[in-house]
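Input/output pair, single chain:
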Amino acid sequence: MAYSYRCKDYPGMEACPASFTAETEAELWKHIELHGATAHQEEPDKWSSEDRQQIKKLNSRNVGRPRTLASPLRSRVWEFTAM
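Output:
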């Protein structure tokens, strides 16, 4: 089962086009934290427990598996948008 997150769903981030899909919730959190640090100059290790709960509520659990793209160099390449 895949997990996904759209940054624009978080209050105040409506203009952000980033969205992520990962096979596990732990992997999704890595994408979210990296995105927060690089795109929004945030410090994820300083996010409050309330901020993390809000993000967790916005994570959606998809019935299918994440969409993958074929690659001759890798068996799977995750497709996601980040800015």
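The beta strands are 2-6, 19-22, 60-62, 68-69, 77-78. The two ends are 25 Å apart (CA to CA).
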